[in-house]
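Side project, low priority. Logging it here so it doesn't get lost.
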Amino acid sequence: MNTLTKIKTRKCFHISSLVGILFSLAVNPFLWFPPKVQAQTDIYCRLSPEAIAEKENLRQAVLGGDKDAEKQYQDIHIQHSRAVGNCRLRNWPRNQGIWLRIYPCDARPGEIDRILDKIVNQGYNQVYIEAFYDGQVLLPAANNPTVWPSVLRVPGYENVDLLADSLRKAKERGLRAYGWVFTMNFGYTYSQLPNRQQALARNGRGQTTLEVIPDNVSLHNQLGASHAFHTFVDPYSPEARQDYSVMVNEVLKRQPQGVLFDYVRYLRGVGSDSVADGVKDLWIYGEASRNVLLQRAKNEAGKELIRRFLDKGYVTSGDIYAVSSRGTPKWQNFFSLSPNGDKLPKGGSGRQVWELSVAHAAQGILDFLQLATQPVKQKGLSTGAVFFPGGNRRVRNNGFDSRLQPWDQFPTSMEWHPMSYGACGDRDPSCIVSKVERVVSMASDGVKIIPAIAGVWGEPFKNRPSLEIQMQAIRRATPQINGISHFSYGWQNIEETRERKSCRL
């Protein structure tokens, strides 16, 4: 090879190398300035302490005004996102989410960044950010067209959009970010609106949910909030439906990648009231719900029998005989709450009108959910329903779980998020697994089931095994499941969350 040939060969090699480098930079512009510590993950996709410390140091530097650190902080987000994402592709479960409630103090500089960094550090690739809860919305006070007050109501922070900021920063870290909203639980503030009293759910004694014994302490209020202020609405109420639609559309403007609907049910009573075994136990005495139930009659005899049943709580053979002078009582034939989907008979016995009333109550939940999810689906985004696996059970011969949650009839196009929160012992996950198995056994093929489990990493908590033990047991029992979520960030960081709730801006 002569000298000229060698020069041309070297020149071609250098050009080829340069083209390769430029192509790599085009694909990943951050390869040129790698972080000092390459992110490593364990089998649960948690990042190494060294990588976590480097990222936190950069966050602190950015807070201190270091402009050079800003670019490095962005770069490390990309590297950690890829490390967790690649790990999730190799390890079970493919998707691992966590439930996150945002507080006013999270408006402090760098606070949302810190929280979301911790979530990525723990190997999560999804986050469910609570956008509507306890009668307040995570919208800026200066731009809140809903009937609910904003979570952040501190003077000087009127334009801070915690929901938009949380969703954006989550996505920057590679987290799939959902909005998480209460559904039929509109909160205490709604119950205080003078022009919304007709929208509240009422039982046969004329009570709203505020006027009965409050629900059992819920995991959603794990840090001491009271359920005594939860208010459920009549799902047939046009006013409630319109108010809810406004809220959902405002959440969608902040561009979540999906919306999860919680409290898709009625209030659960305590003790004997946890079972609905009489029509006056049902939350169908609101004006709209009662009217729709009467309209389900197909003739005057059917309407009169339903009216007597609602008013007295029962019907006698004398009632049936009296209305039969107008013909055989008839009403619509639609699916009941029964998990096997039996259709209601059309006759006029007391048992049949009771089954009709229960089915009507459950249908209200299904109708409300369908309307609530419509704008989300129109945008092509994911929807999910959060439910209790036992919320649709029959109890003994004539009763039903008072939540009347017909989750087995939820749309199969939605994600199903069963709250598998059993507390069966520090080392025993069997009651948790049984809840997941019940849902799997009743779900149609193709339904995406993502169980929500409660606890903390590495140790038992509140009579539940560690998250690791629960997850391993679920995987063994139901290997077809490939997504799971953890309730909640607050449970995993109790002291920190107490401080976030109580601090002053």
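Brief comment: The first strand starts at residue 95 and ends at 100.
Revisit when time allows.
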